[in-house]
Amino acid sequence: MNGSRVHFEVFIRKVPGAAWTLDLATENRATALSTAQDLMAAGRVAAVKVTKEVFDEELREFQSIVIQKLGAAEVVAKSKPQSEAQPLCVTPQDLYTLHARERIGRLLETWLERNSATPSEPLHRPDLVEKLEASGIDLQHAIQKIAIPEAHARSMSVHELIRVFHTLIERAVERLLKDHRKGVLPNLDKEKFASAAERLVQDPERSYLLGAGVAAAIAPAKTWSDKVNLLLDLADAAPEKGAGRGLALNVIQQPLAEILEAKPGITDVLGKGRDLGANLAAMTRLAAYDSVERLMQVESSVAKVMPELSPQATRLAQWLTGDHFQETRAAIGRRILRELVGPRRLCPGEAAREIDVLRALAMSLTAAAGKLLPLEEVQSAFVARSKMLVTGDFVEAYLGSGMTSRQEVEALIWLTENIIGAANKRQASGWLKAVVASIRFEKEMTTAHEHAGARLGELAALHKAVGRCGLVPEDFQPIQEKLGDLGGQVEAAAKLSQIVARANVPLLQRLILLLKLASGENAPLGPAANRARAEALRLFKMDETRAELAGAPDQFRQVRDLINQAGLAA
Q1: 3-state class of 64 per DSSP?
Q2: Distances from the Cα of 570 to the Cα of 322, 445, 494, 560, angstroms
Q3: What are the residue ranges spanned by the domains of the chain?
Q4: pLDDT for 297-326, tens place per residue?
Q5: Can you say whether the dihedral through the CA atoms of 516, 543, 549, 509 is positive or negative?
Q6: CA-to-CA distance for 513 and 562, rounded, in angstroms?
Q7: Which residues 6+ apart lie within 8 Å of 177 measured at CB?
Q8: CB 59 within 8 A of CB 43
Q9: How far apart are CA 203 and CA 198, in angstroms?
Q10: What is the value of pTM for the model shown?
Q11: Is it the case that residue 553 has pLDDT exceeding 80?
Q12: CA atoms within 13 A on the CB side of 160
């Protein structure tokens, strides 16, 4: 193009959604393109583009053409709505939402524990909010903790956002104190709870107003357990039906859920002195009372693990089985999942009991899945907990000392059965394979003083158990093959199949014993079972065997079933 000047410019976006800024201008096209690629490869920018700038002498302006664009150039502007530039809460009513109350609980956790208050109480109790304002430092620190990340996320200055939050809090406090002075807030000492709920059911601020009455009613409680008792008394006094009942129970469950999701609250209700495993079992029984009770009737292992609930906890559990306290159940469920994925041991110093507790929890939470927690979240939590059970420290503590090799194999099979997750199963199979392949286990099984038949029976039981562990074939087949080889050594040394085939006992009895060895019932599948199968086939082909079977229909059915199991039916 005659009469034109050309150069290339590299523009960058440092973060998604930011404006384009010029990083480089050059007359060398290759330099511009390589610079753009280097910036993206180094991860220094979110997006980069290269433009070709052509100056037209006649028009006296540059004509720009984009020749390369890398990264998230256009996507973020769509995924970040303009409304997010505003603070999370902009009106006093916004502070009463579930999300806001959860954040208040985190920001004021220490102060709330010190004053034995739930996150919703300062929003409804004039005396408590005045106490919070008077503390000064606690409130200021809470505002700073929320303002800094929010300011960064919304591209606002911290001081600007602090002013916004201060204004919001002042408006909320002024509203609460004004309603208190006017006598708008219900007084449940003078008015029955059911009457207040029925009176307020059509009021636009019904949840806020009735919540203030509930907060005042539980204020005298000295402990979290006392608060729960007072809340349950209010639940008992709620209207029997209609919209008033729905309002009353919905308001009650807000502080109730906050108490039970917090560690001090749930501990006070369920009792102290338990380890984490027992606490989680008690929480599960509390939150899924009906499902766990039915499961305990058919699963003794669950009944053994589940602790007894106190009369107060049982009363609470019966309330939680209904449809009105779903948020409260969910709060307990969230706490159970947090603990399951956390680093703490369920039963410190009792590895075997830890597996039993985890098994009972898995059965109980799965039985209650849907009503208490989504099944996917339950499975994910147990995969995370299972990972802790296949670490070297846990396995070493679990096996301990004083076990025989066979007992170690049995213990590892039990561990493998009770964990989930493909990676965890494979890790457990590695521990199991190592013990089965050890010289100690081989010597114990091949040179023990026990009768060869008893050792073959033990190996057969282990062989079957390994197949039931939930391992993939490439993990359990090598273990079963090793057990089969050991069974072959035991049988060969004792010549058990030959001895049985020639024993001085009735013919059909010998055939049944051999078929039990051949089918994997009394010997592991492998060389030992194969030799027993050959001897059984030889006996079965004899004319006298067929004659005896024809005259003994009951034994014929038993032999027929064993033949099918041993693979001799063809």
Answers
A1: strand
A2: 59, 33, 29, 12
A3: 4-79, 90-255, 262-389, 404-494, 502-570
A4: 999 999 999 999 999 999 999 999 888 888
A5: negative
A6: 10
A7: 126, 129, 130
A8: no
A9: 10
A10: 0.72
A11: no
A12: 10
